[in-house]
Write the C-alpha cells for this entry.
Amino acid sequence: YIEDMKGRNYESEFMSTLEETPCNVYENALRPYRMYVKSKRSDFLRVGAHYSISSFFEEYPEHVKIFCYTAKRRIYNKKEAGKFRLAVGTAEISSDITREEKNISFAVLHLGDHNINGGTRYFVSNEAFMIMQGEIQDAFGKGDIPEVIRLMDKYFEGNVYSAWSLFKDEQKKIMDQVLLSTYEDIEASYRQIYDNSYTMMNFFHSLGLRLPKSFSVAAEYIINRDIKRIFEAGIDMEKLRKLMEDIRKWSIKIDEAMINYVVSTWIDRNMERLFQKPEDTALLDKIDSILEVLKPLSLSLNLWNSQNVYFSIGKKHFPSMSEKSLKHDELAVRWVDGFLKLGKYLHVKI
C-alpha cells in the first residue's frame, strides 16, 4: 500500500539487505523470506479468491471478516449441475488496517471433492461483468466444463486460484467438510462388510482362527466409530457390552486417543451433573457401570477435573451419608457403596 502511495519499490531494497544477512540454516536470510513470508503475502485478489472459494462451504453474511480484511457481498449467483457447482459474483474487499477498498469480480467452479478453480480480477464495469457472467454461466448450463475453465483463464488472466490459495486455517476447515461425505461413504462400505460378515467372523473365532485382514479392518473401524457415537449421543449399555465383547473376542485394536477423549469428556460432564444432584444414586450407578464395562480396555483417561469434583462431593456429602448408612438407611447404604466404588475407578480415596 505504501509502495502504491509513494510510487517506490521498498521491497527490492529490503530483499537486498536480506541477501547480505547471514543465516544459520540457509545460505542467507532471503531464502526463508521468499519461502515462508513472501509466498504468504496477501492482496485484494487473493483475499477475494479466499472469500469466493470458501463461500461454497459456509454461508457468509453480507459482511464477513477475513483476518484483517472485510468482504462485502455485492452480487452472488450460484448454479448447480449434479456434483458440479458454479458461483459468479462481485464483492467489495477492504483492508481493516489501511482502509483501502477494492471492488473485485470472481467466478468459482467446484468439480467435487477438493477440485476447485476460482478466478478473481478487479471490477471493470457492470457491462464487462455481465458479459463474463453470461458466457461462463452459459457454458456451465450446457455442461461444457472445459469451456468454463477456458473462459475463466481468458477473463481472469492468470489470477486463477485453487484450494491451495486458501488461508491455512480455512484450508483445514474446508477439507474437513470435503472429506465428510467421503468418510460417510467409507463408513457405509465398512459397515456393510461388518454386518454381512459378522456370522463368518464368529465362525472363524469358534475355530480358533485369526480373522482375515479385510474383516478385522472393517470391524476395527466400525467398532471404534460405534463406541464414539455411544458416548456422544447417549449411552446404550447393552450395545456397549456387545462391542466390548467383540473387542475381546476378535482382538480389535481400539483408537485409544479418540476413546480416551470421548470417555473422559462424558465422565466430566456426568460428574458435573452429579455435583448438581449429589444424591442421584441412579446417575452414580450409571457412571460406575460404564467404568466397570470399560475396565478391560485399560484406558488412560484424563480424570483431573472429575477427581476434583468427586473430592468436593465427598467432602460435603460423604460424612452425612455415611452416618445415615450406619443407621441402615437403604438409600444412604446404596449411595455410600456406589460412591466408594466410583472413588476406586477415579483413583481418589476419601
